[in-house]
């Protein structure tokens, strides 16, 4: 896969204007967002829009989230380099690629098999070798590889998915949009204090496509 080097200048502008100016300060997150070529994850013909700060359509009626939201959710996960992370909602694979630049291992689950396949192929072509993708219902997580240091859900759930809470390590963080169907959700961060003790913080209002499935809509 050929990565267009001239896009680096747009990526730098995105980091300054859309991320740093809006309060993203975690150096590892900023570096990862500067490393991953977002133009390769958007639909053909939309590359020139890749570094604008809004979501863009991918196939199957889904979206690649806006750069600021990817950075904000990633920062909210409070990651370290030895962490193992589970992402629910692979979509284009962009957020998984960003996560993979920060942590040791990323697992990602996508409900739409065609999206899972194309994201997997794209990430392999780009040389990201610490990401595994599975097609399936991510509202139930991916228990085989858990427990996880952090879990991020990139689709809106009706309530905190219990299966995902159970797949967190002690001190693990779950960041997930929770709220009403196809309207505003609240981005929340749940933290596992001990076996059955969790704290939940509200971070900000967000708008995501629905999380479908057993613990989704
Ligand atoms: N993280 C993606 C990226 O970087 O391109 C954007 C994700 S998009 C906003 C939300 C994704 O969640 C869609 O691809 C959708 O198919 C997926 N999704 C919805 N319900 C799901 C479920 N139960 N399990 C896994 N993926 C699901």
Could you walk me through the main structural features you see in this protein, from its secondary elements to its overall organization?
There is one protein chain. The chain is an alpha/beta fold. Strand 4, helix 5 and strand 5 form a beta-alpha-beta unit. Helix 2 packs across helix 4. The radius of gyration is 16 Å and the shape is globular. The N and C termini lie far apart (36 Å). The site of S-adenosylmethionine (SAM) has 26 residues, from strand 2, helix 4 and strand 4. One of its GO terms (molecular function) is protein-L-isoaspartate (D-aspartate) O-methyltransferase activity.
Task: Kindly list the characteristics that best describe this protein.
217 residues, 6 helices, binds S-adenosylmethionine, two-stranded antiparallel ribbon, methyltransferase, SAM-dependent_MTases_sf, Protein-L-isoaspartate O-methyltransferase, alpha/beta, S-adenosyl-L-methionine, Rossmann fold, 7-stranded mixed beta sheet
